[in-house]
Amino acid sequence: MSDLESLAYVFPGQGAQSVGMGKDLYDAFDSIKSLFKQADEVIDFPITKMCFEGPDEELRKTVNAQPALVLVSIACLKVAQEIAGKAFPKPTYMAGHSLGEYTALAAANVIDFKDAIILSRERGRLMYEAGLQQPGAMAAVLGLNETVLLDVCKQTDTVIANFNCPGQLVISGPSENIARASEMAKAKGAARVTQLQVSGAFHSPLMQPAVIGMKSALEKVIFRDPVVPIIGNVTAQPLTRGIQFYDELLTQLVSSVQWQKSVEHMIVHGVKKFIEIGPGKVLAGLIKRIDKEVEILNIGDIASVKSMVSS
Question: Which of 111, 190, 194, 311, by CA, is between 20 and 30 Å from 121?
Answer without folding.
Answer: 194
